[in-house]
Design brief:
The structure is a single chain. By secondary structure, this protein is α/β, with parallel strands linked by helices. The chain contains seven helices and nine strands, in the order βαβββαββαβαβααβα. A hairpin with a 2-residue loop joins strand 5 and strand 6. Helix 1 packs across helix 7 and helix 5 runs antiparallel to helix 6.
């Protein structure tokens, strides 16, 4: 079996749409695909580990790295900074692995500018009400944070036409199969 191609896949969409769940499924079925670990200034949630779930940085360290050009993309989201460290992606590409990035729409736009060859997939909910249910059931945000995320989500949903691929996550199994088909199709080119 040939080695996987070093392609970059950007999986984006509103908070609570299931990007992480879909990427988890994708990594189970596509050999060699690796997840780029994002950096953030937010505090770790229960069960999250530094370097595995995120690179947890202080606001000062994040700003220093951003000023030094160490990020492929970075954005402010729900009061915190998030970004993709250039080293996270370059190391995986140099090792011959396809890389998947789980990022918000602002970051996906920046990646489009800096890496136009990256394959971008927008994950959409069947309707906004499903996002509210998902965000509330996660139990990781208070009501104010959920409302802020939903306001941003409505704006992000307006961007769905900017992306060459869209997967509606109404049924996790079906959406996972659709994402897998997109990735396998792109890797075979």
């Amino acid at each position: 079996m040939p080695a996987p191609q070093s392609k970059v896949f950007v999986v984006t969409g509103p908070s609570g749409v299931g990007k992480g769940s879909l990427i988890g499924r994708l990594r189970e079925v596509v050999p060699g695909i690796e997840l780029s670990v994002s950096a953030t200034t937010r505090a770790p949630r229960q069960g999250e580990a530094d370097g595995i779930d995120y690179h947890f940085l202080s606001p000062g360290e994040f700003e220093r790295r951003a000023a030094a050009g160490e990020f492929l993309e970075h954005a402010r989201y729900s009061g915190h900074r998030y970004g993709t460290l250039r080293s996270e992606v370059e190391q995986r590409i140099e090792n011959g692995h396809p890389v998947v990035l789980e990022i918000e729409v602002q970051g996906a736009r920046q990646i489009r500018d800096s890496m136009p060859e990256a394959i971008q997939v927008f994950i959409a909910p069947p309707e906004v009400a499903s996002l509210r249910r998902r965000l509330e059931s996660r139990g990781t945000d208070d009501r104010t944070a959920i409302e802020a995320r939903l306001r941003v989500a409505e704006e992000e949903l307006e961007a769905r036409g900017e992306f060459p691929y869209e997967v509606v996550n109404d049924d996790l199994d079906a959406a996972a199969r659709e994402l897998e088909a997109i990735v396998r199709g792109e890797l075979s080119e």
